[in-house]
Amino acid sequence: MNSFQLKALAIKPSSECVCSLKICRGWESVSDDRWPSKQLKLVGTLRRELLEGETELSFEEFHPNGTRYDSPAAPVALNYFPYNRADVYGCQQCGCAVLKYTEFGGYYVDQRVRLIDATLLIDDC
Are 116 and 97 contacting, i.e. CB atoms less than 8 angstroms apart? Predict the structure, then answer.
């Protein structure tokens, strides 16, 4: 999925629904019991195939204005972490689109979710 397709998903009008993910403006931890699996459908991925010589996708982040990874104002830069490891889901009731990736931290696995804000989407940088 490219930035144009993602932007089209992010700007779809949304109606009222009980989607609990609208509060996930930065990368929020969302446990399985909070993930509304009946409402969400996998619509794409931002992951790409590894290039020759790569052993894994980059962990480099993109914050030209001094934001942090979990900041609601952080840019959505698809070629950078964690976007380059995220899948895209769409809510079947309200039309909102969210990104989801799995963070692995030693002894834990954490599902992280971020609501897509089209105004923060950076074209392929």
Answer: yes
In whole angstroms, what is the distance from residue 32 CA to residue 117 CA?
A: 23
Sorted by sequence, the CB contacts under 8 Å of residue 102 that are 6+ apart come out as: 85, 109, 110, 111, 112
Beta partners for residue 111, in sequence order: 102
Please report the DSSP string for 90-120 in residue order: EETTT--EEEEEEEE-SS-EEEEEEE--GGG
Q: Locate 2 and state its tokens.
A: 């490219």
Which amino acid belongs to residue 122?
I
What is the span of the domain harbouring residue 53? 3-122
Kindly report the pTM of this predicted structure: 0.87
Task: Give the number of domains in the chain.
Answer: 1
Q: Tell me the pLDDT tens digit for each residue of 14-65.
A: 566 667 788 889 999 998 888 989 989 999 999 988 889 989 888 999 999 9
Amino acid at 99: L
What token pair was written down for 43? Answer: 């619509």
